[in-house]
Amino acid sequence: SSETPSPSPSPQTVEVLETTFTTLSTNLDLTSGSGTIPTQIGYLTLLTHFRVDSGSLSGTIPSEIGLLSLLTHFEFFKQISGTIPSEIGSLSQILFLIFDNVLLSGEIPTEIGYLTNLEYLYFNDSPNFTFLPTEIFQLSSLTEIYIRNINQLSGTIPTTIGLLYLMTSMYE
Fold it and tell me: For residue 76, is pLDDT > 70?
């Protein structure tokens, strides 16, 4: 008796900023549109690259972003507000984390210290961050840190920066 293979499940679709993506998408590059990032972003579990470069984006980064366990590139350029959710610490495969010209505020979550594969960390023109956790300076895979135009940061760079043996560049 031969077994009939079960049909492959149909991919679900998720609409993000007026663009429809399937749950089989690996890249999400939003360069136009308006609106917010929906919580359904967590359904795109095969995403490896997520880039937002839309001037009409509003709202916050949903905590469901932490469900994107295969994500290697997380890039935000332009206006997004709120805080970075602590669930960002669940992005265990992340290599590049970029926040440029964003209206995020508050503390950068200490859970960022769980991103043990992180190689490139970029905060530019994000003036409202108030706290840079020392856990960042314990990420031994970091090769480059770029921190510029963050007006509300205060304090000193921790001595644990000496543990970043692979770091080739630090910009402040």
Answer: yes
